[in-house]
């Protein structure tokens, strides 16, 4: 089982989500322009659509990571929810100042306002926040549970039975048995000379 690192994932989730919202300030106005001008071709909007897809895939893969996924999901939902709610409840001047924090150099003015002022960040942020908190809590409970016997550091449990080492050899090896000397019954014919006949009691040599 991979050791969870939710705190690291929380930081990564906030950073990646901030970059995603800021990058959307480049793509969103181009995509809206196609609707405003009633253009049928995708020549201008297709690259920006691909940019949003790449950002979403990267963020999704980070949320799926076993070690940092819970923290990334929680951090992403926390940032989206906090910024979305703050934009709605703050006065307009402070809301525009907050929106400028998500504008990168070269982006059109008020480019990120579509995400901040239409409630989309709240709608996306709250589910991510709830899912991330629940997943964080479940992983914390699993990390506190004792590991069953035979479970290694990587979470691999051997299916072979445990064998104890005996007689200084390998597990399962039979103990060494020294060769036994031949019995006396079989050794007597071998000790008698081959060319000498058997002797009887009272026989002269």
TrEMBL record:
Keywords: Membrane, Transmembrane, Transmembrane helix. The keyword Zinc-finger does not apply. Residues 147-205 are annotated as: Disordered. The keyword Membrane applies. Residues 160-175, 183-194 have a biased composition (Low complexity). The chain crosses the membrane at residues 7-26, 46-65, 72-92, 112-133. Residues 195-205 have a biased composition (Pro residues). This is Uncharacterized protein.
